[in-house]
Amino acid sequence: MSEIISPVRLPTGRPAPVAGEGAGVRAVLIGIAVTFLALFLVIPLGAVFAQAFAHGVSAYLDAFREPDALSAIRLTLTVAAIAVPFNLVFGVAAAWAIAKFEFPGKTFLITLIDLPFSVSPVVSGLIYVLLFGSQGLFGGWLQAHNIQILFALPGIVLATVFVTFPFVARELIPLMQEQGSSEEEAALTLGASGFHAFRTVTLPNIRWGLLYSVLLCNARAMGEFGAVSVVSGHIRGLTNTMPLHVEILYNEYNFVAAFAVASLLAALALVTLVVKSFLEWRFAGELAAGRRH
Amino acid sequence: MRTVWLSTIRTSSMPGFRRAGCLALLGALALGLAAPAARAQTALLNVSYDPTRELYREINEAFARSYKAKTGEDVTVRASHGGSGAQARTVIDGVDADVVTLGIPSDIDAIARLTKKIPADWRGKLPNDSLPYTSTVVFLVRKGNPKGVKDWSDLAKPDVKVITPNPKTSAGGRWNFLAAWGYAYGQDKDAAKADAFVGQLYKNVPVLDTGARGSTVTFAQRRLGDVLPTWENEAYLVLQEFGADKFDIVVPPTSIYAEPPVALVPGNADRKGTAKAAQAYLDYLYTDEAQAIFAKHHYRPFKAQAAAGAGLPDVKLFKIEDYQGSWDDIQAKNFDSGGLFDRLSQAGR
Amino acid sequence: MAATLAAAPAEAPAPRPARRFRRPSVLPGFGLSFGYTLACLGIVVLLPLAGLVVKASGLGFSGILRVATDPRVASALKLSFGVSLLSALVASVFGFLIAWVLTRYEFPGRKIVDAAVDLPFALPTAVAGIALASLYAPDGLIGAPLDRLGIQVAYTPLGVFVAMTFVGLPFAVRTVQPLIAEIDREIEEASATLGASRRATLLKVVLPPLIPAVLTGFALAFARGVGEYGSVIFIAGNLPYVSEIAPLLIVIKLSEFDYGGAAAIATIMLGISFLTLLAINLIQAWSRRRFGYV
């Protein structure tokens, strides 16, 4: 699937005028596009912030003085801090193997890496319940050895890793395929070790794509709800991540606090988008527009 | 060589990596710091159902004080809330609950049956069939009761929209279902007529949320529906949270004796060495102090004196066991796959 | 490590090595990176999914079939697949339009609109679900005017449609956008110079090479919509036979302690994800042959 999004450069400046649709048609099309996006994307985002600040700034800030909210934030950061580097290393290794070498079954391998992407989040949680739950395949063994995976940090991390598994790899594969291996080959010919070539040639070439995929991976890791909700156990102050805490607050009729925590996640989304747009604008040349995240 | 390769990736000169590395380190530190602090004292986990969030927050704090005064030991009680069935499922799958306080006996039966972590005769282990408090189902309607809802029969009228949670996932949903059935059965002791009545009522349900709390939000916040049959305590809480000027509580002449039981989970507590504190926690629920807290939160306490303080209206309560037999039967007949609820929703589409 | 070391001398011009797994290359690290990739893939993806299939196969084929044909499950699957197909279709049409507008026209705020397209990627689904439900509820900002027109969105299959379109839209936009940017304007101009109407140029010259990308975007939006949970349950209404989606049914089966049933529905959904991804790959293979690129 890597080839779908052939790395191209998006026009970064003013698009050239097109000998095409008339001004009227153009205005209508722009109108439809903007209205559609506003109805489906922008207004919901605005609603989050509006409700978060419905009772003023101090009510908003109160939401973050709760120890349970702080522990949810801490857990979310911890989960992302483990899941994202793991997927980063995996993504680089997978992209190196797939983009730099030819071997049979490559498409199949890519499809398998893609799979978590199209698996329902609920299913992603369920598979770990079936493996590690007390009634699951390894449940008895884990219990005998007193190892807690489900309803604890390891389970939440696993579910998050699964959900964000393809992000870095799928961003890097087309990028590295596009760049080819000639530069690395030249470095090797000049006597560099393989590792040295990777560090000095490959990494600088892919760094913006890498940063950008890490951002998206991170946003998704922090925001995952369905999968984590199945494996978390919802123990206040212990296994609640931020999205789960939002749901809990919402169910306690504490709407301001719910939307306040939600707004923090939404702000994270916005920062991700801003940094991403900035990277695209600043490094459009280096950043193959890996359009599928 | 392999380790070098990996570690260098992490510490390479890229800002992204460095940040991720720092975060990982911070996370590990936070964990490392948090873990021993939590281990220094006994920590109990109470896995409970949806509407008891406010109740157990107060109970847990009060218990910690009382336990400290009595034994000198520190104890913290953590709580987890959600749809009763979903909560039972997490215990079955391995949540380390020391006690379970669920919405309906059949959910604790399921834990006992599937995990053996709770003895099969758990209901006899504590006073009053392991019920420190009971409750019932009342109606919440919009201010002024525009649809004139007075009794269960009004819920099946064609122009009334009823909001109730999914009986498959929610204990409150099951009590509502059983209450409606029991009401109809109590009229002329005809099970087929009762089935038909419940089917009629569920035709009036536009939204089936997964938990009692979801239904309340749908009714109170989204302003959908005319009547919300719900836990008595939940109805009072809604008046408190959303404003008494928006809703009225209608108490039907007859309703169900709703039994949210509590139980120790020896299979977990013995392993964790928390059995003593967990048992003390459950015993505490029967003390005057705890009973007064139940009353304050509009539950019906077990002790008569506290019950008088609750000031809850007199309702003629029926026990569903009297009509349908054991809890195993009640669960299988109504809610298991192919049960009455499934047949009704299939017929009703 | 042995494989990595072996990889370097493999470059020697050995004429037609009998059976070699991969084509020779000077670059090192294949063994290490390939092995690591397979190990991660195995532990994170394949092992758990295998566990799922094992659990479901405990029911036997007839058991899975019985679960799938249970009227309530069948109707949930029908809703999930039907509505996600429809929403993927709408997302594709509007996605194409948005991508076209964003690459071809200049207007104030274009960059902001462009960035906003990615919002559903980054916004947590539960947050999106709560926000959508409050907006499209009968008393919400968008729901109220629609309600006066007699259209109810939240708590109906239409609500499911809104949530699924929300999560699917970025895929539809982002798969076609780069290709629209890549279209050689000269071909369009040539077509116009040769006397073709704008309509004919669009239909016969511009559109055909974009079709594979549109199909890919469609398939991705579809796959994402079928599985979506967080944003849908808040707005769906969750009525059996009406607005109950398949992932919710998995959660319900779990609450009933019916692990086999949950695994069976999950396996059915997994199979469909597989087929969708396969279809995407086939479309790409086809279009590579047909157009030389995707």
* DSSP strand count of chain C: 0
Kindly, what is the distance between the CA atoms of the first and last residues of chain C, rounded to a whole number of angstroms? 37 Å
Question: Which shape of chain C, going by the Cα principal axes?
Answer: globular
Task: Write the CATH architecture name of chain C.
Answer: Orthogonal Bundle
Number of domains of chain C: 1
The N- and C-terminal alpha carbons of chain B lie at a distance of: 65 Å
What spatial form of chain B do the alpha-carbon principal axes imply? globular
**Can you give the mean pLDDT of chain B?**
87
Relative helix content of chain C: over 70%
Strand content of chain C: under 5%
Task: Report the total helices of chain C.
Answer: 14
Helix content of chain B: 40-55%
Topology-level CATH name of chain C: MetI-like fold
Secondary structure tally, helices of chain B: 17
Instruction: Report Rg of chain C.
Output: 24 Å
Structure description:
The complex is a heterotrimer of chains A (about 290), B (about 350) and C (about 290). Chain A is an all-alpha fold. Chain A is built from 13 helices and no strands. In chain A, about 70% of the residues lie in helices and about 0% in strands. Chain B has 17 helices and 11 strands. Chain C has about 290 residues and is mainly α. Chain C has one domain: MetI-like fold (Orthogonal Bundle), CATH 1.10.3720. The interface between A and B is large, with 43 and 48 residues.
Concise summary:
The complex is a heterotrimer of chains A (293), B (349) and C (294). Chain A is an all-alpha fold and 293 residues long.
List the SSEs and their pairings.
The complex is a heterotrimer of chains A (293), B (349) and C (294).
Chain A: H1 23-52, H2 56-62, H3 67-100, H4 106-118, H5 121-132, H6 139-144, H7 153-164, H8 166-179, H9 182-189, H10 194-223, H11 226-232, H12 242-251, H13 255-282
Helix pairs in contact in A: 1-13, 3-7, 3-8, 3-10, 5-7, 5-11, 7-10, 7-11, 8-10, 9-10, 10-13, 12-13
Chain B: H1 2-11, H2 15-39, E1 42-48, H3 53-71, E2 75-80, H4 84-93, E3 99-101, H5 105-115, H6 127-130, E4 133-134, E5 137-142, H7 171-188, H8 191-202, H9 212-221, E6 227-231, H10 232-242, E7 247-250, E8 254-256, E9 262-264, H11 266-272, H12 275-284, H13 288-296, E10 300-301, H14 304-310, E11 316-318, H15 320-324, H16 327-334, H17 340-348
Helix pairs in contact in B: 3-13, 4-5, 7-8, 8-17, 13-14
Chain C: H1 2-7, H2 30-57, H3 60-69, H4 71-104, H5 110-116, H6 119-122, H7 125-136, H8 143-148, H9 157-182, H10 185-193, H11 198-227, H12 230-236, H13 246-255, H14 259-291
Helix pairs in contact in C: 2-14, 3-14, 4-9, 4-11, 7-9, 7-12, 9-11, 9-12, 10-11, 11-14, 13-14
